[in-house]
Queue: 2 jobs
Job 1
Amino acid sequence: MRNKRVNELRTLMKERGISVYIIPTSDYHQSEYISDYFKTRQFITGFTGSAGTAVVTMEEACLWTDGRYYIQAEKELQGCEFKLYKMGMDKVPTVREYIKEYVKKHTDKYKDKFCIGFDGQVLCARDGMDYERLAEENHARIYCDEDLIDRLWDNRPTFPTSQAYILEEKYSGKSTADKLRQVREKMKERKADVHVLSDVCDIAWLLNIRGNDIRHVPVILSCLLMDMEKCCWYVKKENLNEKVLNYLSDNHIEVRDYDLIYQDLQKIKGQKLLADLGRINYKLKSSINTELIDTANPEQLLKAVKNPTEVENIKIAHIKDGVAVTKFMYWLKHTIGRETITEMDAAQCINQLRAEQEHYIDISFDTIAAYGENAAMMHYEADNTCNAILEPKGFLLVDSGGHYLEGSTDITRTFALGELSEEERKMFTAVVRSNLNLAAAKFLYGCTGENLDILAREPLWELGIDYRCGTGHGNGYLLNVHEGPNSFRWRIQETIPRAAVFEEGMITTDEPGVYEEGKYGIRIENELLCKRAIKNEYGQFMEFETITYVPIDLDAINAEEMTLREKNILNEYHQKVYRTISPYLTDNEKEWLKYNTRRI
Amino acid sequence: MRNKRVNELRTLMKERGISVYIIPTSDYHQSEYISDYFKTRQFITGFTGSAGTAVVTMEEACLWTDGRYYIQAEKELQGCEFKLYKMGMDKVPTVREYIKEYVKKHTDKYKDKFCIGFDGQVLCARDGMDYERLAEENHARIYCDEDLIDRLWDNRPTFPTSQAYILEEKYSGKSTADKLRQVREKMKERKADVHVLSDVCDIAWLLNIRGNDIRHVPVILSCLLMDMEKCCWYVKKENLNEKVLNYLSDNHIEVRDYDLIYQDLQKIKGQKLLADLGRINYKLKSSINTELIDTANPEQLLKAVKNPTEVENIKIAHIKDGVAVTKFMYWLKHTIGRETITEMDAAQCINQLRAEQEHYIDISFDTIAAYGENAAMMHYEADNTCNAILEPKGFLLVDSGGHYLEGSTDITRTFALGELSEEERKMFTAVVRSNLNLAAAKFLYGCTGENLDILAREPLWELGIDYRCGTGHGNGYLLNVHEGPNSFRWRIQETIPRAAVFEEGMITTDEPGVYEEGKYGIRIENELLCKRAIKNEYGQFMEFETITYVPIDLDAINAEEMTLREKNILNEYHQKVYRTISPYLTDNEKEWLKYNTRRI
């Protein structure tokens, strides 16, 4: 089936003289999660992970994906032509290196007729420009005005047009008028007259509007163009109702048709345009005819630093979420070994417990409930073809979250379902230590996640073990649970924007893990709120407050392997969990929680 | 006296229409340590620290220096016009920002006649270009062909011309021919045809030649120009004897007069020239008339990664050095309270013990022996005007090192001379923990000092304390004890080259400290050799080997504040110190060392 699709694609490529065709995982807005309409890479490769790039030539079909998905991709690519390239591994070429090498190798064959193809509306501007340069250097051309996969894809899902709604100021903490003012100030600082925005989360934040165009990401697919006076929102009419239209009109925001952004952008001349070439597509970039200021969207940092109202709300969201997950843990511990539970049962249970919370909107991503070796796949998701039955031994890893009017959560717990091997216990303890050491960091203002990451990683690196991903990411407010520019990671790469300096009000996940292929997966994820600590002659010290309130499974901890300091941090955390969550529990649950947050 | 000099400088400035004059701390080669001939900034300000920039305008005289020197500079500037700007402190402008602001403020006054002055042979090319741009933007001009301080400086020291000598291959581990080949390979990689080198340590490394032009830095002031065939060394004839001339001739290295570099450089046209604009002076930059490839000197990384012969030698140097410092510690502990010891006595004693070692050449920098509150000045040096008598209480900090044919050392120990306050003991223990935690790091290949620095800093940051400098720096082989590109530091600044990825064979100091103004200073400094550890599916792990062998004063440690892991690291280190050093000690010293390296 997939091999048939690849061959059909090759036929289309031949007809157009395309030598190599690139299918990234993206939508028109460089979104991380994409609606089904845009899942072209999945359509052609069969790989269901959230990140990856497919490249098809006449000879080969290749898929690149990162450390979170190595195991899953290997499994899903079985029986099809696609060859897996593990991004970030020693000696594995990047997509660009592969294509460059391919171009070199085939110069003779294609002479001046080499052609690099991709859908310009989907590829990131910066990547497109890279290929443009590569093409120029090799007398090749670019083919980018057509979505070839669309030609192959019968019954393609429809383009999403969900209902937009307004996020009230008691939740957003800041009016659209104020946000527009803030953005215009930042534009002035960067000497920009105009600003084009295509990042759907940035737009949702700016307009205080949410929707449902992307599964579990409450946004509207749209673009925005603003200068010092005007602000135009390019959006499909179907997304908007009377109330939202009135709200927009009250805020002097002009509504224009979604597709008009390209021609409106082309018309801008003689002005300085602020655009983030890493956050717009290649076609938008190609529509720019005026001086460009290529810099991160100012909205990115503004929305990452949560305002006091947002912080207060988010803490409320985490209490609700903590109640749901704690109740789930109680249920799990009391049901395992008595009734049959599958991974999907577990996911359904936790989703249901979240849905019972006030102001619940949606889960914030597909719940991962992965038993035993399945959890070694960082982003595994059970389905009808693969749905393990939990046994009263080993680990169940549950990574889940909720969207509430008060904000979004992202939490992972790994639960002991019964007997554990010595190795499992040792690794669980190491992961807990990683998590706690990072959470307890005290640091001078100016530090980034690149400075702090090793606090989480060292307990595992000491054992010769690593997790092949960052330690944590920012989290949006009723937006994508993966948000920049704050993060914890150690690799400093020139091609990736630097992690941001931690500011008071930033929220970042802390999620170290151990993933042993074929054996088990362990991850403990809390969210950390960055706060100011003391300021003295040495500068402004900063610290984190853990705002996730769910016990860490003491059944899996070997306390002897923890330092006194680590035990103290854990005990203090557990006391806080008990104080915060117990008021919302039944007497039985409360008693159970008391014991499971005991001092060790 | 100093105010008189400033006013004389202002007279010279007025005569030339100079509005602001910049006096950096440098020589013609952007050396960190400079010979007395070049101490113009010290001449005008009276501040004796090794780093700082003076700026003189008609209204103000200012000095910038960094955290190592805040306390010392405040003291030394007393009674003179110079105002201290503490680099790196909150809201303190940089030199450039200050000048920019000054230019703005005085545009009216000076109209188009504003002029920025400096000695172009001394200012770094990159800084000069910055001022060039600033001048252009403000219709100002640059005055850079004269050294104004020279006009004021009667009895200026003479230009140094020490005897060059050859470092044999049994010490350097690699012939000059091989090094030239390596550099030419790197030039090819960067597509360069020609390469100009002005860094005196890079040149010494490349030619396997040492000298004595800079106090305690065994180099010859010179420049070098090479292409794929030729190599010219621009050096004063007085530096060279017959043996060295023959050696150079054998290696096909042409000797040309020191001052000819500028005109020879001007003649190069139509070729691609590799030059590091951060490591050449502005006059050299202004002499370039051909296409420039501005990149770090390839010599920098090549010389930082010590070859196996160098590593073996350096370990030998550290044994000799450890014997000297351990003997010093024995003497100190047995003499304090019995005889009068001053800071200078202590320095003299340790210098003498080093001088007794085989193949000793020189101390590697002026010994810092700082008692009590004097040690709060990171780079304090006792002299005839300030030379404290040691009392049998508090701390003596000794930061010292030696040059041997087998390499250079840099070590700091802080010794308890008797009774300590609770705070002193607590801080000493925290510094020891900092030092040990960094030394014990296990990390994946790819980490830089920016990733690892927090391992040293966290035990102090937890207490709300910081040291206002990096945690450590590379160390040259019979060269400057401060060497890039490897270092431990946390601030990631765009204006400073990134810390290098740690490679096997790099040697970096690990020297956290606590400096309490008016009270005490504590620093523990060891040198760490980077080595490969296990390689597995997660990548290549790296680790450090501590190659400094001197006890850490157990009299000052509060073992209760250390984790079990930290105690184990210390105990293991002390066992190694005993094994390595005891064979070279007298029986009494040996017995004493046994006790002072006991397990805690």
Job 2
Amino acid sequence: MMNTEKEIRSHRYCVIMCGGIGSRFWPYSRTGLPKQFIDFLGTGRSLLQMSYDRIRSVVPAENILVVTNEAYAELVRRQLPDLGDNSILLEPARRNTAPCIAWAAYHIKARDAHASIVVTPSDHLITREESFRDSIVRGFEFVESRDALLTLGIQPTRPETGYGYIQIGDEVEPGINKVKTFTEKPNVELAKVFIDTGEFFWNSGIFLWKADSIIRALHEHAPEIAQVFDRGAGHFGTASERDFIEMEFPGCMSISIDFAVMEKASNVYVETVDFGWSDLGTWSSLYDNSPRNSDGNVTQNCKVMSYDSSGNIFAVRDDKLVVVQGLNDYIVADAGDVLLICPKSEEQDIRNMVSDAKLKFGDTYL
Amino acid sequence: MMNTEKEIRSHRYCVIMCGGIGSRFWPYSRTGLPKQFIDFLGTGRSLLQMSYDRIRSVVPAENILVVTNEAYAELVRRQLPDLGDNSILLEPARRNTAPCIAWAAYHIKARDAHASIVVTPSDHLITREESFRDSIVRGFEFVESRDALLTLGIQPTRPETGYGYIQIGDEVEPGINKVKTFTEKPNVELAKVFIDTGEFFWNSGIFLWKADSIIRALHEHAPEIAQVFDRGAGHFGTASERDFIEMEFPGCMSISIDFAVMEKASNVYVETVDFGWSDLGTWSSLYDNSPRNSDGNVTQNCKVMSYDSSGNIFAVRDDKLVVVQGLNDYIVADAGDVLLICPKSEEQDIRNMVSDAKLKFGDTYL
């Protein structure tokens, strides 16, 4: 018996991960209101809301789950009021992506033994939504037809040193290849070589697989994590799931899914895509992805009067007026109780500033 | 019959002028809270309060008057709760210093025909209070013994181009000379010549005279103004003074006491003084007069973490944390709804920015 399109769609799930704290955008992004909850592009929708909107055309609304930290439960409910409480998984502790993805897979499988899943971060920017949708559908079809772990590789546009790279191996279907290697942040010379070969793609952090496939891979490559969730059998999807997670989740090792599974498994594939992706991981990438004023500045939620000033990014809350003269290529971020002024070229130092602020003032300004 | 010291003191009055709007310190100083009402040095007292405290040891409390704009009546009452309502003269319009000083003189004379008066701005800094007190007492004694208009001339310490200068003529008593010329803001070459001659002093805007003497001088040199207040005879010090002023004050010409009287009269003297004066008229003078952090920055009401940054002045309300890297010799002024960033060396452009902000946004950010 042929499955109808609707039946096929009904087994497709999306897991949106949004537990990060976004410290690289401090103080604009704060522990209390991280990056993914901010309307970064001034569109009226936060990055999380844009992620939700984007996946709605691929996956039924009731199959969209959000995994976040307990601290952000209210923020998620407010920003995504259509989500049922059963669709919000609240992590009692931060344990990186592998335990998060494992929990979501066990949870979904308990509900639907034939589930396939796309896992996506919530804080990325994707500009070509139609191309995104086609890529996700194509990815679902691929993983539903075999035992595969699929990652989306972004066509690189510059020798970026802040991303992970995926080297492609043999093509198995048009646009889908075996993965040859994963490489974490290369230096700029290596990144240039990567680009020139045409074999390397940026690791997007967007994954597709059947619930079955990822659970099998966890058993094989991260058994410590799989064992934790195996003990939860009978709890997932029931009233006792919450208690089980409160008790057991904090005991999981903290590790990314890339290290725990993707770099070890042999059934890993990459779908090469090009849908206008940016991880908005740095002020500079935000600057590059935002519309500029006629004077070459980027403004976030504020009015700017600039004189002899360009190349700046002004991220200022509450519709404030910024008046600036003789300032070029700076980040000016104002979060009400903290004002940061730093050259764009030195933004890697912001992490140290956050550490210093924590040492000096505790959690007050985090 | 000899007058006792107490009797002499009882005829001494002080007029503190505090109607200015302080636009040079925008946006830290705002139309709604001008410079003189701000605790600029973080001492717990505003510049106005410091002016009041300073004169209290020279003049009886009940003889201290404040002249301000109607808009600031509440601010004055809150900051100087000991002032009676009869001691606050509220100007219904801004008309520069001559009408302000004229009104105060007529008002005081109606109360005390033998009054002598010191007139002082409210937004200056004076660091050596004892020397200030001695200078004022000396000035009172001088003007009480003759028909004289006395101005205080500050020993200059640098070829400042933003001040007016007074050239001294013959000495009439130790430390008190006839005035030879008044010169408005000279260029830097001329200012250097002024300093070298030893004959030039900064015009402090602090004046002493008998009420009689200034009223006589107004009749002679600014009869249009004197006529207005002559019509008020019988109103000053009574319940109808307010109505009279509301009706007549706005019709006065707007002119400074320097132009209207001091530069024309022949009985003008200068007492040369040296009591640690600054007009705090510019961000740079505020920087020069404020204690610096170990990194060479000046902070107003905020905490600063600075990296590779010095020579800046941070004037930020509400105990905000400022984190700054790679910024040197800037003004960073944050007033809640406006943030200004401008090189110290270009602060003369701030006036234009205020004008632009008014054109673009009306009075919202003034």
